[in-house]
Amino acid sequence: MLTEDERRKIRDAIAGSRGKREAALDALKIVQEHRGWVSDELKDVAQMLEMTPVELDSIATFYDRIFRKPVGKHVITICDSASCWVTGSVNLIDHLLSTLGVSLAETTGDGQFTVLLTACLGACDQAPAMMVDDVLYGNLTVSRIDEILRLYR
Amino acid sequence: MEKPLTGRFRKDGKAPTLRECREAGGYAGLQKALREMSPAEVVSAVRDSGLRGRGGAGFPTGDKWEFMPRGDEARRPVYFICNADEMEPGTFKDRVLIEGDPHQLIEGIVISAYAVEADHAYIFLRYEYHEAARRLEKALKEAYGDNLLGKNILGSGFDLDLHLHRSAGRYMCGEETTMIAALEGKRPFPRIKPPHTQHCGVWGKSSVTNNTETICNVPHIVLNGPQWYRGLSASGKEGGTKVYAVSGRVHRPGAWELPMGTPLRELIMGHAGGMKEGYSFRAALPGGSSTEFVLEEHLDVRMDFESVPGVGSRLGTGCVIVMDDRVCPVGLLFSLMSFYARESCGWCTPCREGLPWIARTVAAIHSGKGENQDMEVLREYSQHLWVGRTFCLLAPGAMEPLRSGIRYFEEDFDRHIREKGCPFSERHVDDLY
Predict the structure, then answer these.
(1) How far is CA B79 from the centre of its chain?
(2) Which of A24-33, B23-32, B234-243 has the lowest mean pLDDT?
(3) Interface touch A82/B336, C-beta < 8 Å
(4) What pairs with residue B259 in β-bridges?
(5) For strand B120-125 and strand B161-166, is the pairing parallel, antiparallel, or unpaired?
(6) DSSP per residue over B143-174, as a string?
(7) CATH (residue range A74-152)
(8) Is some CB atom of chain B closer than 8 A to the CB atom of A112?
(9) Can you tell me the ipTM of this complex?
(10) What ranges do the domains of chain A cover?
(11) Contacts of A122 in chain B (CB under 8 A)
């Protein structure tokens, strides 16, 4: 069941758009903000948007920033695209995963972190770069990654 | 040297307020367009300026606008879309422009929308640009408050609503027809053209899409005229300035507004401060990851749309990725190919099946499991995924660095196969992926 708060925000998003389905992505984001991921309440969202659940799910599963599975409290997206690659991102990805004791797309046992690879973050002047939730961190080194992780523990 | 696009950037890195902007000439181009020029005159000015699309394709902006149906021919409401879905690896110029002067973009959108007689405009912004989004939201509020957006803009009778659409990832959405599907709340896939979006775009109505940097040029062209704009370029061939960028192991990675046609060497060795100690230049992707590699011998090329093809590549986004001598070219090609494989929308078979196959083949070579015939596979696939074989240009874009990569770095590929491992590193990419 969607909460009343979620319903109200989704109704507002629909009111601000031309045609209900235009609000689909915003509606999914609202659910994700509330729950950390988009659960099967997706079918209730679909009803509000006058779409079928399958249609809405095809949108949800397209975007890499919409999660259809539970993720950790913090999602770390680390870039392995060209500019970060040539400045040594692979070693940093190794370090991040071994420090947290997870593989890619896994969540730490304490539920704190999920690590995902991401396409170029558009922060190539600060490569190598990663984001923790919506915060960008650039000029990464092994010790800087350790410092950043401490901020979230 | 004139720097119209970054002229109002503040030294402290914050965005100028509307007041600061207007005191420095902001929205003067809009006033001029709305009060003194017809939409057709704005289109002519932009066409005469020689402005070419800064998203990477370099299509003349004035021509794109001239294809827009007008009056009764147009399918209303007409939409104008600003493409700020900047996701090309190595590219961050649009972020710099939005964060540095969000009002410049808004002014450019209103003038452009006026030129194509649009009723509604969108900014399609990539998810990760949170700071840009905050600054745009503030600027939009200011612009609505000052009658620079909304009904009867500056008393001209022209109305325009501007909506900020924040996306949720996926490189694919930067493609014109895919972006339209995304805006409409559909699973974003590309579609074959024709019909062109000018006739059948968002919601089946007339629409046109321009890149963020392209749009930022428009107020200055309108205000100062096409002659002035043409005079800004270094080569005299193509108009204006360009926001170039350099990333990789250089002293000062960054972005700079410079005359269009500035030589590549000046960007890397001058503005970016040259290579870091202990590293030397080996190759570069001159305009984002979907362009062919260039080598040391090509560094004197002028960075404009006409000149870069002379050295076998393209200007693309003008954001240069430098590969130094300590980077394994096979490893970098793996990074590039796995990016495209991951970002393929899966709509058409060559891209969906071919890109992962290529990425796996490059990974096998890098990890010492390659065989001589793998090179033949890569050469063959680079034909199978070329222009005309796919719905959109994602896969052909991926083939540009692959084709030049296997040509220029043939000896590196051979060594990996011969020595059954990577001469640069013991780290094998297929352990991670």
Answers:
(1) 20
(2) B234-243
(3) yes
(4) B241
(5) parallel
(6) HHHTTSSBSSGGGSS--BEEEEEE----GGGG
(7) 3.40.30.10
(8) no
(9) 0.97
(10) 4-60, 74-152
(11) 86-87, 91-92, 94-95, 126, 128-129
